[in-house]
Amino acid sequence: MKLRIVQKHIAELDLVPWVEAADRAGMDLVCFGELAATGCLYEPRPVEPVDRILQRLVPFGVGVMFGAVRVEVEGRYNSYFFRRHRQTWVYDKINLFPPFGEDRIYRPGKVPGLFVTPFGDFGVAVCYDLRFDDIFARLAELAVPYLIVPAAFPQVRIEDWRRLLAQRARELGATVIGVNAVGSDGVNRFGGSSMVVAPDGSIVAQADETGEQILDVTL
Predict the structure, then answer these.
(1) In sequence order, what are the beta bridge partners of 122?
(2) What is the DSSP string of 156-211?
(3) Closest among 53, 124, 134, 38 to 89, alpha carbons compared
(4) Which of 75, 113, 118, 153 is a Cys-bridge partner for 107, taking CB atoms 3.0 to 4.6 Å apart?
(5) Domain locations in the chain?
(6) H-helix or E-strand spanning residue 64
(7) Which CATH superfamily, name and number, covers 2-218?
């Protein structure tokens, strides 16, 4: 599997140029971070409908994973998607982060994250989910070979991000793909450090804390 990780500015919401470039480069899968297509919500506000975002991805052969706010009749969800052609999987973040007010804005998900893709099965955990052992006990039962962890992880706690990604890789015996944002949205500054971690906890590839970067890895 030819994997591309896109570490981008939190406020840059148009995914299509990145997806188009990954498609041209012959990538199998391109991965973005948490809320990559809508940005973070600190209070309720209008966002682009997910159906419209998904529709723009249909022409591309590359698989795409990305985060966005999903609005349903019962409320909003902090969701993460896999899209390839017209195949779609979605995971709703279970553990909402109170310091960002997520528990006031979103409804929590209830079902463990699992994407069954042509490139293998992916467990899914979004940002704050990393800190909850029960999430990973359930994923361990599924014996997933890959874990995708999209995030909007603040720079002030970025050492926790690095430590937890390595810890979860060792626990699951899986390759962990962590995709974080960089830049500031006027409320928080995000710490990048997107990385791929081998099942033994060693780092295969890693981006820096501040710059927009692409990591291409063959798994």
Answers:
(1) 115, 146
(2) GGHHHHHHHHHHHHHHHTSEEEEE--EEE-SS-EEE---EEE-TTS-EEEE--SSS
(3) 124
(4) 75
(5) 2-218
(6) strand 63-72
(7) Carbon-nitrogen hydrolase (3.60.110.10)
